Amino acid sequence: MIVVGSGAIHLRDELAALGGEIGGIEIRKFPDGEKYVRVLGDAGEVTVVSSTFFPQDEHIIELLLIGDALREKGAEKLRAVVPYFGYSRQDRVSKEGEPVSVRAVMRALGLYYDELYVFDLHNPETLRFFPGKGVNLFPARAIAEYFSEKLGDGVVLAPDKGARGRAGAVAEKLGLAYSHFEKKRISPTEVEMKPVDVDVGGRNVLIVDDIISTGGTMVKAANLLREMGAKKVFVAATHGVFAEGAIERVSKAVDELAVTNTIPTPVSRISIVPEIVRL
Ligand code: R5P
Fold it and tell me: What's the count of helices (H) and strands (E) in the chain, helices before strands?
């Protein structure tokens, strides 16, 4: 049985259409703002699906309440599928006195859930903080399928060396070449990019990243590719955590912007639901 939380309501119809047995759940708020959850039906082995995008704290608390309700009902095995994992970027202490926020959330979920599946976690190593089985999925197949007709003999690029594996995974599905940009972050809002070690002249390019936030990384990369004579520039990311105006900024700079539906956005055109149903 699949229980769909508030952070995955946008996935519910597709989950059902692809054969997922959707369990009943009542979710509402008390007048003071606290959340009320009631899980209906039998609980045996249950998969709870919910992303923890904004309002992150509310979505996280709801996952805990659903976990508690299911344990109360005697669930034998609980699996959490959290396509976008909020707080994942706070994975280290930079200033004394700070928490490792991703650890705090993973440990809390571990109180109820036996397994945790996430998509393209910012730092996959942080899954070790989850006490049970933790799996990081990358939607290479879904991204590749979406862009396969558009790229021709193109090239797949990562915006930095750390993301090279993502570009490689997508390129492998498409049978295309891949490489990466050299990127240096000068300040929280400024990124310096150096040319890539591949000839993009006259070729279509797909840039793949985990997250688009301000869009600064993608806009810089796209502009640079135009200067280098690229034909069409496409941009894909797993998570569209778009800051105000980011969709417009990136869309203006590229031929097409598409992200997956780990977070619902106007450009969430690539579905991760088939991957969830396959689990
Ligand atoms: C950085 O480590 C991430 O992989 C992304 O490149 C970054 O979060 C994108 O941020 P922005 O859209 O603000 O440039």
Answer: 8, 15
Task: Please name every residue paired with 184 in a beta bridge, in sequence order, or none if there are none.
Answer: 192
Residues of the chain with CATH 3.40.50.2020: 2-137, 140-271
Q: Does the annotation count 184 as an active-site position?
A: no
For CA atoms 143, 145, 151, 153, the dihedral sign is positive
- Distance (Å, whole) CA 279 – CA 275: 7
For ligand 1, say whether the CB of 210 is within 6 Å of any of its atoms. yes
CATH architecture of the domain 2-137 equals 3-Layer(aba) Sandwich (3.40)
CATH class of 140-271: alpha beta
CB of 5 closer than 8 Å to CB of 46: no
| Residue 278, C-beta contacts closer than 8 angstroms, at least 6 positions apart | none
Structure tokens that stand for 8 in this block = 């995955």
Q: Which tokens is 225 given?
A: 């590719």
Beta bridge partners of 46: 78
Choosing from 121, 211, 218, 265 the residue with most ligand 1 atoms within 8 A of its CB, the one to mutate for a pocket test is 211
> Which amino acid, one-letter code, is at 8?
A
Interval 171-226: pLDDT, tens = 999 999 999 998 677 787 776 776 677 889 999 999 999 999 999 999 989 999 99
Question: Which atom in ligand 1 lies closest to the alpha carbon of residue 159?
Answer: 6
